[in-house]
Design goal:
mainly alpha; 82% helix; cell cycle
Length: 119
């Protein structure tokens, strides 16, 4: 009887050890899976954060590009204006035979000053 009780107790202990071992393995497995899901979720959040920062930066670069293109257009118009002035001068000399008179032929006319202009 004592041997039977002792054997039953040892069988109970040996049966509970694998169950506890199996329970620990399941817990560790679930803990690892939960940790991996958490890490994956954090990586998704980080990627979305990076995407939004990159998108904001892209928008600022696009606005800067538009501003630079607008300035380039203004500079082209200014260049054409100065080029047109030179063309007008060249055509005036060649086609209309216009010229700047020498200093001996230049007359300066000054208007008399009124009392309001003196003050």
């Amino acid at each position: 009887m004592k041997t039977e009780t002792l054997q039953e107790n040892t069988e109970d202990v040996t049966e509970t050890l694998p169950k506890n071992s199996l329970g620990i393995k399941k817990f560790v497995t679930y803990a690892i899976l939960v940790l991996m899901v958490f890490i994956s979720a954090m990586m998704v959040v980080f990627q979305i954060f990076e995407y939004r920062n990159d998108f904001r930066q892209l928008n600022s670069y696009m606005r800067e590009k538009e501003d630079i293109n607008a300035e380039w257009g203004r500079l082209l118009i200014e260049q054409q204006t100065f080029g047109a002035t030179a063309q007008i001068g060249t055509r005036a000399v060649t086609q209309l035979r216009m010229y700047s008179p020498p200093a001996a032929q230049t007359v300066v006319i000054s208007l008399p000053m009124t009392s309001q202009q003196k003050n």
